[in-house]
User: Fold these one by one.
Assistant:
Number 1:
Amino acid sequence: MHEGTEQELLDSCEQGVEAALAAGAAQAEVYAHHERETVVGFANNDLGSVAVNEETTLGIRVFVDGRMGFATTNRPGSLAEVAAEAVEIARSSPPDDNNGLPEPQPVPALDPLVDPSLLEWGPKELADLGARLLAQVRGATSDRLPAAKVTVDKLDMGISHSARAVASSTGVSAAHRGAHAQGSVFGMALDGDEVGSFSYDGDAVRTVAELEPALSKAFGRFVGKSFGALGATQGSSFRGPILLPADVVESFLVSYLLHGLSAASVRKGVSPFADKVGERIAVPGFTLVEEGSGLAGHPITPFDREGMPRKRTVLVDDGVLKGFLFNSYEARHAGVQSTGHATGGAGSLPSVGASTLSVAAGDVPLATLSDMERGIVVTRFSGSTDPSSGDFSGVVKGGFLVEGGERRPVKETTIAGNLWTALQSLGGISAEQEVYYGTRAMPALRLEDVSVTAG
Amino acid sequence: MRDLLKDALRDADGFVELRWHAKTFRNVQVQQGRLEQSTVRRRDGVAVRVLHDGTWGFASTSDVTLAGIRRAIADARAAAIATSALRRDKVPALTAADLAVGDFDQPGVDELLARSMDERVGFVVDLEERARKASTHLASTQAMYREIFEQKAIVTTDGADASFRLVRPELYVFATATKDGQLQTAYESLGATGGWDCMVGRNPDAMADKAVKTAVDLLGAKSPEGGWSQVVMAPSIVGLLVHEAIGHTVEADFVQSGSAAQGKLGQQVASELVTLADSGVSEHVGGAGGTIPVDDEGVIAGRTEIIRDGKLVSYLHNRESAARMGSKPTGNARAWEYADEPLIRMRNTYIEPGEQSVEELIGGVEDGYFLDGPRNGQADATAEFMFGVVTARRIKDGKLGELVKGVTLTGNAFDVLRSVDGVSKEFHWDLGSGHCGKGQPMKVDAGGPFIRCKALLGGEQAA
């Protein structure tokens, strides 16, 4: 990909808008994404395969008499056909008074987020680094179980260079280019005939200089979790606290909280927080922020899926609900301004969500939070959560029972409770906060009075 | 398209596999009387795999011309050459396989493609309205129709030369009931391989009614007591069991990494009542959602018996794992879209039906649960599984009783299968909606009869 790719992409978007208007649309928007990706995959502790992919995808959204249609293609040459198809889809859809495109707003300028050294890397450099990291993982040992080894089912290393652009008939026009590298590992530990529960970890960075240190750290966490899952025995059944390490907080709790804080969920009647703005929904000290154009030191593309400027939005402040996330449709429906949280890519309609998130660190050291008379450390949760009711139930994987000052791995242990009740009675928020994938900053959390059932 | 691919392979060195893969996704979604989405997504291109010096190289291109495909072959080969020195355990020579030659179009394609957008949209609007008007205790209702139209052509330098088209319609109805500030959600869904009539033949109106009734009933339901219990599983839960708990552990790539199925071929891993298979064909009942005639390596996708009368007899293979393990490829190499590499994935996974009726199975339970409606599921390397269940009814002295909510089931897959003491004669495919995740999504199906066994329920403990 070369400098100027984002401008060429923006030109394609503008051509698509013209094609859609010519096909009969009253309003049209085209969002485009171009990506060149190199991925080196290791499988079963050895090099697996090397993949090179490059593609441009364009999504055309049109409105005709208040009716919406959307079509997408990965063949830029077929823009006119796809635009006509989107118009046909709109004509067969019922109208909605709130349908329409946003008016343009100024988007802060941001240089391309591209480390030139990263662009010089190809399959060989990625494979060499992957092999070094694999050797580190495979060579790791456990003091507790000297004969145990970690086996890697899958380890992927990739570099992606991408450009995004969006243009609309109302005058929205934005484009940006960036590159990042990522790595992930999935596998488990073995000790003789014993197979431990699987674990995974990974990270993403923007520069070559950060890549090996970040992945070494992430893969080190993976090794710790894998060994920790060995020697698991039956636990005990009780009601008590559970500790969510920082890397579990989003998947266990925050993602479901965000579902309820989306204006779309409020409109659809499935948010448990619909009429609770200004009310306490969590303990004092719990603060959740959507960080707009990125965490400190980790900038992201400055515009959302609709080309609106991203805005930092405080969702929960010291336990009190402050508001919701909006795209332009939800904002129009609610009679407010968009908060710049339209999400999605060229292959889908804009929805509503978060791109970067932080939960503020608390004031309790992790060591203190972990000091439970009897409780469970949830290394990984495999279960079901109803995002409306907040009820959760599932299995703790690779987790630990903390009891009488001792900590031991347990198996076949299920936990059940309610997230919204737990938020209002959190036992503590750790003073330590970790950053993952450059877009998430989370502390550890302790939830109280959870049902624990041992097999 | 096969001619174009064969042209691109002319004069190719060594093993090269080309897959032209086109997918058109349609999605119509109505919630609370509003059309949330009516979209079409088209994506196609050619995937290339090259085997050089025992190392795979992969590339993909949306430039479906002779020049574009040849460039992608060169990219894939260059990637393999650049990294082959790092591969310790080279890919062995691929064993002979039952390679497909010809057209293998599946039924229902032209019939479904001939339906108008108006018909699709009108169908979903009406279904959501039916659900919304079915109760005064509803906070929200949603109906969603999804459709995949898939076309493939697969050509390899060692003789695969096949193409096919198929369609997979899916339907969902969600209902969220509310009372005194409480919210409970339930859903019904179906996913098939086949035309429009294949879908409407499964009574969508009854699905809508059931989703609403379940959501409303769950408002008054308590959580179960946690602990080991005798359970009767409906085919949807049997499907989750065979897919999550067994199927993933016998995928040969996971076996090679050390899954709990490693080294167990020939061992008794289940009750003798259990014969479990995975097939590209819709066995017993038509329209299964994971049906494929040919896999993405060009291998005919037949039936593979995994467990026979309780004994583990086979893993699921692609051409590489079959060559390594001295087995035959089983037609399980599948890729989600053109830019994805094929991985070992399931197709339609099931337990063979038995002799008893479901009434007999329930009648034999003194104290347990009847489980129906999959929420989600996950496998583990240890063969410990998890799945979420939408509805569970208490069974007391052989009779169905009150509804409980939020049930999660776990246990060791092989222990649960060894505890099976009843297999019904009824058979349903019931996991065709949604998708399996393993780095890439994949359409699968699973099911079978009703079965009776023991499992661990996650639930409430006394304060």
Number 2:
Amino acid sequence: MAIAFTRYLQGGTPTEISATDILQFAGAGGFDDPVFITEYNSTTHVKTAASADKSSGNTPNNNKFISQTGGTGGDSQADWGDGTEDLDQILDAEAALHINIADASAFAVSNAIIYSYDGVTTTDPLANLDVRMAEVGDTNFTEAEGSAAALALTDQGSATSHDYYIVISKSPTTIGLKEDVIRMECIVS
Amino acid sequence: MRANIRTTAIEILKEAGFKSPEKKLGKVSCSIAGIVGIVDVNHLIVIPAGVEKIEVFFDGDKKEIELVGVNKQRVVSDLAKTVIEDNGRESAEMAEKMQLKKAKLKNKTK
């Protein structure tokens, strides 16, 4: 079994996020534009190790957190390009992050979780960074900072290819570059 | 049932033809499409696109579901939506607690 995890920033054309790339959450000005404190990202990009905009020309998706419970019946709200909407209205293709897990032989995926951490200790969130994540279909965001607060992803039955579509939005609470790590864990069987 | 659906264990067990599975699930576990040890009727499961048949093991019996086509956009079943809404309320409460904790920490460090 040689299971492959492939990550994409979705958009008009998906941009693959390789092991040395960064998924950049930026301001309204686009690539490398900072996000103001307590505001959430207005654009999302893939940045290479050489600091190039890999997603340029691919019209990358952006998911912007609007509210945790301000939507219909207490749903979260987000803006993915059409204005503020209830989170559960987002379609697979509109999520920013797509993770595909594949192998030539069929396998199931269970106990999958995804979260942000400081890059050193999985239980430790990166200080001063608000990270909201949801699986497409969820009604509310999870503030997935540190492994104890991970977003639990749905088990997937046996298949050769599994797709997870993740809505993700971040906001700094202090000035300065914020470099967290997004980690997904799961059991394949 | 079509592939590319987010649904619940109970819906799959009923689709497979098990009678009143909710009466026994929990006392015995089931296995659905390779996901083993399921004991909760509300256990959420995605049946990925490309799957044509699901094997279900429950209460000493094995049944199969032949899937009829695939949903282009992943469908969330009605019962799954209810489970997700309940989970969402918990997520919202946790997020609120986290925000309060952060606010207290911020005030402490001032």
Number 3:
Amino acid sequence: MTNMNCKKARPLFSLLEGGELEGQVAGGVREHLESCPECRGLATRTRRVQALLALKRHEQPDEFYFRTFLSGFHRRLYADLVQRKSLWGTIRAAFELDQRAGFALRAATFCAGVALVTLSLYTSHLSLQTNTEQLAMNAADRLSRNVARPVDPSWSGVAVADHRAPARTEYVLDRVSYSPTLHETAVLSF
Amino acid sequence: MDELESKIQPPDKVPNTLSSQEAARDRALVQRAQAGEVEAFNELVEAYKTRVYGVLYHMLGNREDAADLAQEVFVRAFKFIGSFRWEANFYSWLYRIVINTALNFIKGRKEPTLSLNQWDDQVEGAPVMQELMSQESVHGELDRGEIQEKLNEALQKLSKEHRAVVVLHDIQGMKHQEVARVMGCSVATTRSRLHYAHQQLQTLLAKYL
């Protein structure tokens, strides 16, 4: 592979070392390493780092630890299943909250609940007040219409409808000037 | 390249890819566990407890935290095994739970505290250890404790994502594709993270290289 350069080759060193590179790409990296002393040095140091990291496989826990692992797992599982029966335990487990975060969430939920109840009480109070006022206005309106009032057009200058006499129904034809002569059609005028 | 290879001994390869026998065993056990058989899940715990603990220990650098979280991982695996649908093998699925548990724990903790397990006697035979022990530092010969401490300090200085790829690839011996599957990223991302992590470790461990 002739277009291998330092930038392309360097991330591939660990793949080459682990046998995960094959064919042309592996050949290209090897060729590049032969021709680039800087990359060769880097590859050497990378292998040293990997060799050091591999030493960590020799760090082993106490032999006793794994003997009690299964029983410890079952104790924890039981405790977790029992805790999940509570609502807050379920929420905490679902969101992986620690105790402080769980407490903050509970406090926030409580305050939100109080605010919601207050708001709904206030809203219903307002609506009750509005309904009461409306009822009072309707009653006053009905009362004012049923009381007989003397009509004196000169006094008010405004023609007041006489509610004592039944209103005469008006028909459209009343407005029509109709000449009932033969061979004449009615002339409509509004 | 042959001359170069002969100078540095390759690290011991831990066979961490599943054999077909192990894969078949896992499939049978998982199916029984999904049917509600606790004994089958116990067998899975016994099969994977060492590896799960190992990943957590190397990620956290603290054996007590690793011990605590290892059991937590299996509790989670037990709770969610019903939803496991064989999109990957059980081993990759379990490791994903391990890595996510470790990453969440690291995110939540303030300062890492190193609490290291003892190296077993086989470490003395490792070529790189023999070479290091024969070197002289500024203060005299290096001792095992110092090497272990510096190595773990360097690993803890990496970001948690870079540390995860190093732990899975260089310590657990997983291949790039498996690491990418566990981490939920592409092979190219895994490769670049590993390369960057190696560069950082080279700077931090320059004295020992």
